Amino acid sequence: MDRPLKNIWGIILAAGSGSRLADAAGGTRKQYLEYKSAPLFWHSARTFSRVAPVQGVVFVFPPDDVAAMEKTLRQYFKSEDLGIRWAVAPGGDRRQDSVRNGLSALPADCGGVLVHDSARPFASARILTDLIDALQDGARSVIPTVPVTDTVKRVAGTTVAETLNRAELAAVQTPQAFETGLLREAHDRADKEGWEVTDDASMVERLAEVVTIPGEAANIKITVPEDLKRLEEAGTTVPCVGWGYDVHRFGGDNDRPLVLGGVPIPGGPTVIAHSDGDVLLHALADGILGTFGGGDIGRHFPDTDPRFKNADSGVLLRETLAMAEQAGVRVVHADLTVVTQIPRLAPHAAQIAKNICRLLGLEAHQVNFKATTEETLGFTGQKKGIKAVASVTGLREM
């Protein structure tokens, strides 16, 4: 590294009027459009927060919105602490005026700054990391670019004046990274000499070399009404896995009859439990909760609550599935194991698996049930109790 920069910040521009989108967005400015239940500017803030060298961000909002958005941001950071510092600045008449105001809100010791348009909510942490790495390796100004795939012509009126060499052309994206001092100098010159530019690199390139890194095709800008479809189509489905475990002691003649997976096991030992004692469904419910970070069944259905005394574990499982659905998770597979020395469960395995399929709404190939002993070892091997484990796979819409 040539000269490591310290205290790197981001400027997130969210001060535009969004006039080209106003009608299609119902009058909402594009920076406030919601994607996955959060406004576009907040998605950019999340991305900045995932890049370790970034210490903070300045949000630039329309001047009339600054007071309200400061209150809004306090609530956002209270409910989702991104772990970075933040400030708010008013926007200006032009994009470059908004950036200049954002620069004024940076701490005095800010060594590097990344300027980003909030209308690009899909920028990845990889781009930010590559930009910062280039700065740390000696570049003073770095921008992400993607190749131009169409033939581009310079047109005068309605006549082609020139066909440009596509190999020398690139489309420029944000964020763009700069030495803070260099960007301030460029804005001072632009203000004094009346430069009109469309991005920060356009003014900085008059003072210093601008280096490029590969951008990303997915890093599109929400600009025209057709782009709103991107917010609908850009959702992704990710796999998630939860693991559940439960144990019940065997009891005397007056305790719960043994039930596994909702199936009564005739002749089996009784179990001590507050609900119906279905150790398999309890482990399964815990596994489902694990797919979306939902805690455990003890939190949702505590054995200290009289409402759950004698509760049917199948009902509790359905409530757990409803929680998963609300969190955007669809259960697609369950691998289940019961560990017990008694009774022998092989005669009941097919029925248990079939009933689990019914409870989960899955096909036979999506549920695997097995039973094993522990060769007389441990409390199960000594016939003191029974335990179950469950591995649950889900798909979650993000």
Automatic annotation (TrEMBL):
Keyword Zinc-finger: no
Chain intervals for the UniProt region annotation (2-C-methyl-D-erythritol 4-phosphate cytidylyltransferase): 1-239
Keywords from the named record: Isoprene biosynthesis, Lyase, Metal-binding, Multifunctional enzyme, Nucleotidyltransferase, Transferase
Residue positions binding 4-CDP-2-C-methyl-D-erythritol 2-phosphate: 246-248, 274-275, 296-298, 301-305, 372-375, 379
HAMAP family: IspD (MF_00108), IspDF (MF_01520), IspF (MF_00107)
Catalysed reaction equations from the record: 4-CDP-2-C-methyl-D-erythritol 2-phosphate = 2-C-methyl-D-erythritol 2,4-cyclic diphosphate + CMP; 2-C-methyl-D-erythritol 4-phosphate + CTP + H(+) = 4-CDP-2-C-methyl-D-erythritol + diphosphate
Needed cofactors: a divalent metal cation
Protein name: Bifunctional enzyme IspD/IspF
UniProt cross-references to CDD domains, sorted A to Z: CDP-ME_synthetase, MECDP_synthase
Domain 2-C-methyl-D-erythritol 2,4-cyclodiphosphate synthase: 241-393
Pathway note: Isoprenoid biosynthesis; isopentenyl diphosphate biosynthesis via DXP pathway; isopentenyl diphosphate from 1-deoxy-D-xylulose 5-phosphate: step 2/6; Isoprenoid biosynthesis; isopentenyl diphosphate biosynthesis via DXP pathway; isopentenyl diphosphate from 1-deoxy-D-xylulose 5-phosphate: step 4/6
Region spans: 2-C-methyl-D-erythritol 2,4-cyclodiphosphate synthase: 240-398
Described purpose of this protein according to its UniProt entry: Bifunctional enzyme that catalyzes the formation of 4-diphosphocytidyl-2-C-methyl-D-erythritol from CTP and 2-C-methyl-D-erythritol 4-phosphate (MEP) (IspD), and catalyzes the conversion of 4-diphosphocytidyl-2-C-methyl-D-erythritol 2-phosphate (CDP-ME2P) to 2-C-methyl-D-erythritol 2,4-cyclodiphosphate (ME-CPP) with a corresponding release of cytidine 5-monophosphate (CMP) (IspF).
Pfam annotation, one family: IspD
